[in-house]
Amino acid sequence: MPDSSAGWEGVPAFHVHPGHAFEGFELVERPDGRSMLQARCHCGEVLDVAEARFAPCPECPGSACVRCGGTGRIVDHAALEWRTLD
Questions:
Q1: How buried is 50 (Cβ within 10 angstroms: 0-12 exposed, 13-18 middle, 19+ buried)?
Q2: Which residues pair with 22 in a beta bridge?
Q3: How far apart are CA 75 and CA 86, in angstroms?
Q4: Beta partners for residue 38, in sequence order
Q5: Do residues 80 and 50 lie in contact, with contact meaning Cβ atoms separated by under 8 Å?
Q6: Of 35, 47, 66, 86, whose CB count within 10 A is highest?
Q7: Longest C-alpha distance within the chain, in Å?
Q8: Beta-ladder partners of 73
Q9: Are 50 and 40 in contact, with CB atoms under 8 Å apart?
Q10: Residue in 86, 14, 48, 35 with CA at minimum distance from that of residue 3
């Protein structure tokens, strides 16, 4: 489990490689149909993963929306439980 002491309250810090930049997040569909979020290092390695949790988009009901891409849902970052890759 990531160390929560370095992040905002309720948002744990990610494992990072010393001297590397954080690349970003990737939403990945697993073969079983579940969605996973991956936190990636600039070197390409997966740092941590979390089962994706979604909330309704506060800006639209699922139409052409820049925030949610028209899906009607956004990632609920507060509900994510990050862990190292198994």
A1: buried
A2: 41
A3: 22
A4: 26, 49
A5: yes
A6: 47
A7: 42
A8: 56
A9: no
A10: 14
| Helix (H), strand (E), coil (C) string for the chain | CCCHHHCCCCCCCCCCCCCCCEEEEEEEECCCCCEEEEEEECCCCEEEEEECCEEECCCCCCCCCCCCCCCCEEECHHHCCCECCC
What are 25's strand-pairing partners? 39
Rounded CA separation 38/82 (Å): 9
Instruction: Give 25-75 pLDDT, tens digit per residue.
Output: 899 999 999 999 999 988 989 989 999 999 999 988 777 789 888 888 999
Can you tell me which residue has the tokens 């939403």? 27
The pTM of the whole model exceeds 0.85: no
